[in-house]
Write a structure and sequence with these properties.
about 375 residues; alpha/beta; TIM Barrel; Arc Repressor Mutant, subunit A; nine-stranded mixed beta sheet; three-stranded antiparallel beta sheet; 14 helices; about 20% strand; binds iron/sulfur cluster
Amino acid sequence: MFDPYKALYIHVPFCKQRCAYCDFATRAVPQGDAAINAYADDMVLSIRRAGKQGFLGSIETVYLGGGTPTYLGSRALTEILYTLSLSMHLTDEVECSMEANPDSLDERLVKDVWALGVNRLSIGVQSFDDRVLGILGRVHDAEAAKRAIEIAHERFENVSVDLMCGIPGQSQESFAASVRTAVAAGVTHVSIYPLEIHEGTPFGRAVAAGRMPAIDEDLEASYMEIAEEILGQAGFSRYEVASYARPGFACRHNIAYWTGVPYLGLGPSAATMTQNATRRMRKQDDCVTDDLDARQMRVEDVMMGMRMSQGVSDELVAHASELAPELVDVLDGLASRGLCTHADGRWRPTERGWLCGNDLYGAILDVAP
Ligand code: SF4
């Protein structure tokens, strides 16, 4: 017997064009391609099946990600969202987020998806600097990004944007200007992603061939500090290492991932996490990718909690320590290295802990490998 799923992720594996840095499970197809209709048909069946199996009865957050969900177009999205609303209680209390790209977000689509229960849009802006967008291989320009936010606001109060930093050719001034532009556009949430280089991508090949510099972690850290300063002054709080929100607008779906909430993934390459008190399993495309026992699970909960600014409570650490007694010593050691602190009944990551995330998270996970 497993605990009910509380979060649902729907993966959309299509984009207009592949960006130069992207290794997500997506592919470029022409608009209106037959694969899009076939995908929508399959997704409708998957949702109905999940509903009949009783998997959707306790869902509190839904996230349509990708890929580019808005690239499906109004018809396919309407089919999927309508089926979802028939298969679960898609009320206002359910946070229903959808990723959108500026080139495929228009007024009609905004009105349609809002009417069908989506209540949060996350727009992949990445930068408001056309030169930087060109380097990234994005299909939109800064004007399209601003227009997309404006259109989104015609229905949505809860609008998030993604911005990237550490991009070769991007200056600190350019990044700071993008963060300020997002604030001025009235968004409620900003995610900041440092560039990662993945093998097999155009950026990966360019770095391997010496045509592009490798990631400079110190430089990326300085961008994160710029974001924190501008967004903090504008009334956003950093509730997770890469996420900033105005009060009341933290993403509940992402918090579910970091707090050990079971989630169901539908669509190609979507991960599912199933658990009960003694076992946690993650599956992707019918393959088990993680199979944790109770000890590993409890330690993982502490590790994931340290991604968030609120960290983890003494109670959670005590619960994990019942099976992994060395955990407190490890946290003490991390605190003495300045990677976390212990105060007011909580262990919290420090700025340095976030910047040296591999050290912080790795040391905790090593308690129960
Ligand atoms: S739009 Fe997003 S998912 Fe699609 S290729 Fe670009 S980065 Fe990847």
